[in-house]
Amino acid sequence: MLKLLRSLIPGGDRARREEAPAAELPAPPTKVVATGVESFSVAAHLSREGGFPILDWEAAHNWVQSIPDPERRGDVWGRVERAWLKHLQSALGPAYVLRESDSALLLSTLEPNVAAATLGFMAKTLLRITRVLEGLADVPEWGKDILIVFDDEESYYRYVSRLYPSGEFAGSSGMYIGAGCGHFVTVKSDLRAIEPVIAHEMTHGCVSHLPIPAWLNEGLAVNTEQRLSPTPGRVLTPRQMHAKHLAFWGETEIQEFWSGKSFLRNDDGNMLSYDLARILVAQLSADWPTFRSFALAASMDDGGAAAALEHLEVDLGAAASALLERESVEGWAPDPRAWNEAPERGAFRSSRARPRRVVPLPAISCYIERQ
């Protein structure tokens, strides 16, 4: 945890406000007031799912957009974020504290010094991501980065399970949830895991304005995470991982990879998808200016195939086949005709004139504890 504590830079993005536990606070706000429009009823737009308050973010977005003065909308959106977090704080219990810095909001039971260090780390990581992903990363003008640290896995999975109607999903230690009000969630059980979760999920937030395929989104997030917050060695050796790749990937599975569906599997395909995305992005991004042109043009509709041919002069099927030491490339290029469903969104269109990371529901990106 020393690395996390050292990230609190004196004079930097220090916590400006530390709110008392919920038991010492008045009831959460029932409305948000803004000049020129009727107040927004927070209470009327809250529902309960899994015991947690869920705000109708589309209604909130429309209300904020109706404010006559555009210069005031960002500030008002921030007040809507805080109002929702105070309701969530109340639901989680008096041990949870809502803290705020210049660029982030943190809801957790972390000790004050650790919470302050976490906020500092978030600010530092955001700056580093914009440097590492120069020309790709974008920080919207509205809102702040929000991190919710649940005390236990039961609460964490109960909170995220509403986003998986099927009831089946891979295990994870953190997520970026872009549905409505973009925010990051993780578990307190191992504080050492918070740093890579923040780096991984904040990367997703910073490229959420790009309509890139899921494999590119995840590949960027994994490589950025490992660069900014490297974790200890893997359980599996490179030789063992390679053997798993060779045994798993076939024509059907690779099309799932290009469409993003393989990232939703609850078997080894999930882990192998993240690893293949990591390797592909690491290889393709050796020449950053060229790769940046590719990433800016890549579309999830064809898995990035056309952009790769135009900007990288690379056939993605051939590239993946070569990395896995396969002789044949037939059936390995992204082929939307073979996809039975619409591709998964690797990132989501947004506009700097909209609230931070407001996207169509649902929008989920998992941080998987890779082997």
Question: Would you give an account of this structure?
Answer:
The structure is a single chain. The chain has helices at residues 2-6, 57-65, 70-92, 112-132, 153-160, 194-206, 214-228, 238-248, 251-259, 268-284, 288-297, 305-312, 316-323; strands at 17-18, 31-32, 40-41, 46-49, 52-55, 97-100, 104-108, 145-150, 174-177, 183-187, 364-367. With 371 residues, it is of the alpha+beta class. The protein has two domains: 2-208 and 349-367, no CATH class; 227-338, no CATH class. The protein is globular. The protein is built from 13 helices and eleven strands. Helix 4 crosses helix 6 (194-206), helix 7 (214-228) packs across helix 10 (268-284) and helix 11 packs antiparallel against helix 12 (305-312).
